[in-house]
Automatic annotation (TrEMBL):
It is an enzyme of class 6 (ligase). Binds 3 Mg(2+) ions per subunit. Mg(2+) 2 binds at E413. It comes from Floccifex porci. It catalyses: tRNA(Lys) + L-lysine + ATP = L-lysyl-tRNA(Lys) + AMP + diphosphate. One of its GO terms (cellular component) is cytosol. This is Lysine--tRNA ligase.
Length: 495
């Protein structure tokens, strides 16, 4: 094994660890039963005066990490930090005894200690705990970053999230807020009568979205599997089975690029409701945004990256073709051949690739160039071309377009919804068209899921379905610019 190179500070700390062992104290401690946290103490006692607290003599047991420490002779102060924040500890040699005071002297910033004592206020009115019993719990062998600069390298914050959580209250706030948002989503969807389910992460067939997958191999079955790129097809099988309303909050995996809004593994919620449709999915998502923002933030009026946004229902609704016409004057309501559409694209500086082989693909390119980034307030853009929507119903009035929407806010997509395609013959044809795209080199195209088509042949009721990106939703509600802030352990390049 390679020799560990230690800094001077690390050598000093290891010496102190040995000193504790020589005193018969385990440097890495035992269970400690707390009766309070810093937040509970502040909430319960901060309103009392110094004299009232003296008279009360309230006793607590608290534990946490030493964040500051100053000592003068036979007394000292320190701040310890727990899940709620920090609280001051007052330590006197004549109250805790010589042996425990010696431990206090040896403790470093970053060490974890337990304090049993009484609630007090200093002459300056600072709520504190006056130590009566001082217990060493765990030795920190590495020093924390310097207080005022913390982890200044953003990349290091993501690589060493454990240090970021110690030093950065904002990181801890995000870590605690994210599960609150997810619980609130569950509460809302449960309240709509939906059933939360789990479906396999390992899938034998690529489907449910257009994305490049991660591929793995199961040795016993001697079969290739994909890490799922969507939860859609298994969930719709459950609608066929009669569950009528289901949702899943789960990890998806896409072997694609990384940027401020993309990570190779991410979390979505997908929901499917029998006897509903695209309009029902607009109502469901509007209601979810309204409910969750009110429950977590207490308001639907938020600021995201300097933009004032209203998450109050209803949201604006606009057809994709109308949005393009408003933005650049090109009217895709007109019937046109693929060649005519390519010519218009070239005139507008839009490059069309070989696999973008329908007018629908070109409509989508125009939307991405002229519309997407300009949408600020929550807006449902509906009426996507059928050729780029292999799992959505064709619109009855104009079958060139699908009953599909995407929700855009501040230029980013948050949700994708359909009136689900439940015609097995149409579905098989669409899968076969996707297969043609795969043969042309589109490695994001779906495979033919024969079992799913068979499921539809048993009869699926008219159904609405929607997927919402939870990471982006958390970013929105916590005003974060990059997905890496809302993931505890984002993927990083090797150093």
């Amino acid at each position: 094994m390679a020799e560990i190179k230690l800094t001077e500070q690390e050598k000093v700390r290891r010496k102190k660890m040995q000193d504790l062992q020589d005193m018969g104290i385990d440097p890495f401690g035992q269970r400690y039963d707390r009766t309070a946290t810093s937040g509970k103490i502040i909430e319960k006692y901060d309103s009392y005066t110094k004299e009232e607290l003296q008279e009360m003599g309230a006793s607590v047991k608290i534990a946490g990490r030493i964040m500051t420490k100053r000592r003068q002779g036979k007394a000292g102060f320190m701040h310890i930090q727990d899940i709620d924040g920090q609280i001051q500890i007052y330590v006197r040699k004549d109250e805790i005894g010589e042996d425990q005071y010696e431990i206090f002297k040896k403790n470093d910033i970053g060490d974890i200690v337990g304090i049993e004592g009484t609630i007090m206020k200093t002459d300056h009115g600072q709520l504190s705990v006056r130590a009566k019993v001082y217990t060493h719990l765990s030795k920190a062998l590495r020093p924390l970053p310097e207080k005022f600069h913390g982890l200044t390298d953003v990349e290091e914050r993501y690589r060493r999230r454990y240090v970021d959580l110690i030093m950065n209250p904002e990181a801890k706030h995000l870590a605690i807020t994210r599960p609150r948002i997810i619980r609130s989503i569950q509460k809302y969807l449960d309240g709509q009568g939906l059933i939360e389910v789990e479906t396999p992460v390992l899938q034998p067939i690529l489907g449910g979205a257009s994305a490049r997958p991660f591929i793995t191999h199961h040795n016993t079955l001697d079969m290739p599997f994909y890490l799922r790129i969507a939860t859609e097809l298994p969930l719709k099988r459950l609608i066929v089975g009669g569950l009528e309303g289901v949702y899943e909050i789960g990890r998806l995996f896409r072997n694609e690029g990384m940027d401020a809004t993309h990570n190779p593994e991410f979390t979505t919620v997908e929901a499917y409701v029998a006897y509903s449709d695209l309009s029902g999915m607009m109502d469901l998502i509007e209601g979810l945004f309204d409910f969750v923002s009110n429950e977590v933030l207490g308001t639907t009026e938020i600021t995201y990256q300097g933009q004032q946004l209203s998450l109050k229902a209803p949201f604006k609704r606009i057809h994709m073709v109308d949005a393009i016409k408003e933005a650049c004057g090109v009217d895709f309501w007109q019937d046109m051949s693929y060649e005519e559409a390519v010519k218009i694209a070239n005139e507008h500086g839009i490059e069309v690739e070989k696999i973008q082989n329908t007018v629908g693909h070109i409509i989508n390119l125009f939307f991405e160039k002229y519309v997407e980034e300009k949408i600020i307030q929550p807006t449902f853009v509906y009426g996507h071309p059928t050729s780029i929507s292999p799992l959505a119903k064709k619109n009855k009035q104009d079958p060139r377009f699908a009953d599909r929407y995407e929700l855009f806010i501040c230029g980013h997509e948050y949700a994708n919804a359909f009136s689900e395609l439940n015609d097995p013959i149409d579905q098989r044809e669409r899968f076969e068209k996707q297969l043609e795209l795969r043969n042309l080199g589109d490695d994001e195209a779906n495979e033919v899921d024969v079992d799913y088509v068979e499921a539809l042949e048993y009869g699926m009721p008219p159904t609405g379905g929607v997927g919402l990106g939870i990471d982006r939703f958390v970013m929105l509600l916590t005003d974060q610019r990059t997905i890496r802030e809302v993931l505890l352990f984002p993927h990083m390049k090797n150093r």
